[in-house]
Design goal:
Layout lengths: L11 E4 L4 H6 L6 H4 L3 H6 L4 E6 L2 H9 L3 H11 L5 E5 L12 H14 L3 E4 L10 H9 L3 E7 L8 H14 L3 E5 L7 H14 L4 E4 L7 H11 L3 E4 L13 H8 L10 H15 L16 H4 L3 H13 L6 H14 L9 H14 L9 H8 L11 H8 L17 H8 L6 H9 L1 H13 L11 E2 L15 E6 L2 E9 L10 E5 L1 H7 L6 E3 L5 E3 L15 E2 L5 E6 L6 E2 L4 E7 L2 E6 L4 E6 L6 E2 L6 E4 L2
Parallel strand pairs: 1-2, 1-8, 2-3, 3-4, 4-5, 5-6, 6-7, 7-8
Antiparallel strand pairs: 9-10, 10-11, 11-12, 13-14, 15-22, 16-18, 16-21, 17-20, 18-19, 20-22
Length: 620
Amino acid sequence: MPKNKTKNQRVKITDTVLRDAHQSLLATRMRTEDMLPIAEKLDKVGYFSLEVWGGATFDTCLRFLREDPWQRLRDLKKALPKTKLQMLLRGQNLVGYRHYSDDVVKKFVERSVKNGMDIFRIFDALNDIRNVEVAVKAVKSNKAIVEACVCYTTSPVHTHEGFAEMALQLEDMGADTICIKDMAGLLTPYAAYDLVKMLKEKIKLPIHIHTHDSSGLASMSYLKAIEAGAEMIDTAISSIASGTAQPPTESLVEALQGTVYDTGLDIALLADIAEYFRNLRKKYKRFESEYTGINTKTLVVQIPGGMISNLAVQLKEQNAIEKMDEVLEEIPRVRKDMGYPPLVTPASQVVGTQATLNILSGERYKVITTETRNYFKGLYGTPPGKIEKKVQKKAIGDEEPITCRPADLLEPELDKLTRELGGRAKSTDDILSYALFPNVALEYFEQRESGKLEPELLEEVKETQPPQVPHIPSLAPSEFIITVHGESYRVKVAGTGHKVEGKRPFFLKIDERLEEVMLESLTEVIPATAGEIEAKPTTTSVRPKATKKGDVTAPIPGKVTSIKVSEGNKVSAGDTLLTVEAMKMENEVHTPMDGIVKKIYVKVGDSVNPDETLMVIEKE
């Protein structure tokens, strides 16, 4: 134990249970209504801070939970008056997946502080320091705390000396603390000691360590980092901890108790909090997967904890969870092609989605996402290493990539967005939500306006037999009874359409109450044994099956986000016809030939499958 430590240098703890922990283990699905009942006890612990916002929570609130993320922040601030609230901010990407104009960045920071944010952990996915400067200055001007990040990773182009030099630049920029952000759990114990020691020799700021327990090394790495001089660590309450989340809070508190690093936190109070989340976790069981436990393969594939749980959920949605190992093996190859970016959002999402498409399409880079093209154009910044020129050419052709700060190419956006939204925006916060996630925000605004916000279901559909529902008359052979949350509904099945993976889609005539409760969750009903049903989520459609060259299809299942042409338009091979969002990334769909748009079968918002014809292109 170092002799230069004194007893007034206690280690401070940031608990991530309200953000990164459930993002890493439960696909970010924890709802505000489940956070507030335990807030009073969390507020009594004496944490350095609670991480409650940022990362994927903003997107998930709007997209899946149908919550206003700004209202979540206000509610948590009110419920946690004694504890500093902390968020994760992706520099010029904010909490989205592209770079936003400087006026959007400044306004987002301003509104975040007004709504209750105290500490901003700011990073850039490529460690391109140009991409954090505006956000850092905005936080400082709003008198909040800047925790600037060095995104830790290992590769042929990353060194501890390079990380230390970056930390010095961030200190000069005005950071209040420096975070070593180890999003994939790659920081081994002695590497942690060496890196912290090197930073301590270069900078005067407190050092905060963030890691994930994906490889089982996190607690050991924390102890060595603390011995080297780190003042703060991230942990998660034990019942939502370890694996792809952070190591358990209680374990670190106990490990440091009675030493010069003693946190001073009440282990009994932490036990009460752990019990609450232990019971709550059962509610979100459907979002757990076998890929969120400790797995030393993480040291090879280098995937962040939050990405693994979300990737598993997304592959399930594509009916391709059996491809997970292939995707994990493809990710390092794509990362090398892209110049070894640290795998943190949005770079992790770009790399992970492209790797997934490479596997699902059966050919590397047969389908290239819009975000992958933008990456190779330089619109995310400068990659740490050299990119694969052949892949870059496939993505952007002969176009020259940019070398300036990407946001320098962006015009101010706020006024334009305000005009676009008009009366649909109820506040500046709404405008910012729209700026970050246009299509998702519009869906949320529409549901909010109608008074019918429809969050995804948390519970599985319960099945029952017709005799158990005496108040409904006898059923025809093609009719079934299903029970959801104690309510029973009549479902009439009419087989039609083309086959999907050997099964036949069905149209449903559904009791009106069922449409309100679960129409999006249950769109196929297949007769099982007598009196029972088997419910499987899929997409029904009357679109014809693609059979010829001019039949335009989607690369993978997704949702149509834009249509670029109209019937009768002339198009040339390679032109973009529409975009389809899948796994939070946009995929451009191109015409396979020269010709005329003869027929369009889709509209914006439609869900589509790969074997469906979305448009028909015919030769002139």
